[in-house]
Amino acid sequence: MAELIRKEDHFTLKFSMMEKVEGVHGDITFPVAAISGVRIVDNVITAVHGLRAPGTSIPGVVAMGTFWSRSEKLFVMIHHQDRRGVRIELTGQTYDAILFSTDNPEQLLSGLALEPDPAS
């Protein structure tokens, strides 16, 4: 499972070797200052939209890689349906948002000193 790591003024979403293959992408690093919003998402697979290119996808089950739509470019790393996750909105980065599944999003965000937006 992808791991979000904070080091000083930036975050890295670190992937296993298999995730790198499935997502056709290496680890993603972005500055803390680029974060414009954070949301906890229930059943995170339903939040994925757009055309996948490149990556791996089984609709409604797994989604890994880059997803393009008219409104945004997402990087997604979701392993199972009915799973909770985190959406991190970014400004001035390659991706407009990063969406990934995690067992305990509240604990993850708390441990990284990130507060979810009140509407999440």
Would you write up a description of this structure?
With 120 residues, the protein is mainly beta. The protein contains 2 helices and 9 strands. It has helices spanning 17-23, 105-111, and strands at residues 3-7, 10-14, 28-31, 35-41, 51-58, 62-68, 73-78, 85-90, 97-101. Strands 4-8-9-7-6-5 form a 6-stranded mixed β-sheet, with helices on one face. A 3-stranded antiparallel β-sheet has the order 1-2-3, with no helix packed on it. The longest helix is centred in the first third of the chain and has 7 residues, at 17-23. The chain is globular and about 35 Å long. The mean pLDDT is 89.
Summarize this entry quickly.
This protein is mostly beta strands and 120 residues long.
User: By helix and strand content, what is the structural category?
Assistant: mainly beta
Number of helices: 2
**How would you spell out the order of helices and strands?**
EEHEEEEEEEH
Radius of gyration computed on alpha carbons: 13 Å
Strand fraction equals 35-45%
Poorly predicted sequence stretches spanning 5 or more consecutive residues: none
Outline, from the CA principal axes? Answer: globular
Largest sheet: 6 strands, mixed
What do the pLDDT scores average to? 89
